[in-house]
Amino acid sequence: MTDVTLKLTSSLDDVPAEVSHFLEFVERELLTTSERIGNIIINIENEHEDKETILKLMQSLRHNLIKIDIRLEDCMSIWGGYMDVLDNPLPAKEEEEIEENKNAEG
């Protein structure tokens, strides 16, 4: 799997909703992962799958958990930045300059 870094721009007021959206993804993935773990347990207990297949399913779960962990790390980073901005707001003039630069870029 190749990872890429995404740069997102959002208004400060939208940050909580964006983080919530990412956390909803995490929640769905955790539910799916939990179901998959339950299926693996059933397959082990009932010997429905060969041992090699079970090992591959476990490896797939680990990859999914890594993806979930990365998304949680993203949420923490975004939320930490959000808290920093709330605790240390930019002076109005500096904020205007940043906004003007963003508008000029695109």
- Envelope shape: elongated
Termini separation: 31 Å
Please mark out the parts with pLDDT under 50 across 5 or more consecutive residues, or reply none: none
**Biggest pleated-sheet summary:** none
Report Rg. 21 Å
Q: Count every beta strand, where a strand is a DSSP E run of 2 or more residues.
A: 0
Computed structural class: mainly alpha
Quaternary structure classification: single chain
What does this structure look like?
The structure is a single chain. It is built from 3 helices and no strands. The longest helix is centred in the middle third of the chain and has 37 residues, at 51-87. The radius of gyration is 21 Å and the shape is elongated. By secondary structure, it is mainly α.
Short description:
This protein has 106 residues and is mainly α. The protein has 3 helices and no strands.
Provide the descriptors you would attach to this structure in a database record.
mainly alpha, elongated, 106 residues, 78% helix, 3 helices
